[in-house]
Predict the structure.
Amino acid sequence: MIYLDNGATSFHKPQGVYRAVGEAMRSCANPGRGGYGAALEASRRVYGCREAAAELFECQPEQVALTTSCTHGLNIAIRSLVRPGGRVVVSGFEHNAVTRPLHALGADIRVAGRKLFDWADTLERFGDALKKGADAVVFTHVSNVFGYILPVEELAALCREKGVPFIIDAAQSAGTLPVSLSKLGADFIAMPGHKGLLGPQGTGLLLCKGEAAPLLYGGTGSLSIQQEMPDYLPDRLEPGTLNVPGYAGLAEGLRYVRRTGLEEIFQREHTQLLRCVRGLETLGMRVFAGEHQAGTVSFLAGMDCEEAAERLAKEGIAVRAGLHCAPYAHESAGTLDTGTVRVSFGHDADSSQTNMFLRAASKLPGYKV
């Protein structure tokens, strides 16, 4: 199988990730729940994950809350900053992990910046929206549908200038592009463990600048006599038993990313992205590509996108088709009625993957207006 669905999850993990998961299952008990060896080993593994994340994302280990997913982290962040009915500015490329929690709160959602690969438009529209006031801002770093890299540094500076708290969804950038809590000054940055960070599914990270509101309540192994959640991070956000094998594996994924280097990983993905775009255009597909693009590209063939993906699957090519849990992004691009076929490269991107994908894609009909 040629796996080109890394926007959904990384499938081929570094060997160290598999080993760490198995070792943790054999040697770890419940962290923070005892002073015996297996509990202490669990605590060491969990703290090792915090340390590895803190090194990569330029923050303190206690600012790293362990979550079950990026969606989990975004829900904590949004509930911490947004009151019911509050006015929130978002980009035109947000995932349902952002928009559904906001809708559940009855937030007044204002969409800013709908032009693909256009930094000037994104910044201008955000600036206009913030002039009218906002309680919070949420924006993705990279569109999960189109690979559009938003100007996060400039958007962060704009939010800081206006004194508006903000959240960054780094689901598609963590492990590929630089993400720094200290430099960006975000109130929260949420990310999954299982995509670009190459960890197991069921893991995620929430980087917290300061205070945060618990989403779940329960035992933390600390301050057990009191009935309120601890008032300090990360305990405040981590009730219940942590996924120790998952975070042991994630720690190895983080270390692999750091050893390999973000620039190297991005270059691998981007080189194949450009080859893929050129090849699809030559085949007569409608391709969504431009400046400021990461290792993801969407396209339309001359047939239903779901059927196109099924044909590719029969050729041994794994891609994703549909709306990709991001109707805002498709509305912005004009593909809400059709969806797209998405190709997303990963840390192991190479020319053989692209060649075999294009060979299979050549059997699809070209796009006709």
Remarks:
- Residues 37-57 form the longest helix (21 residues).
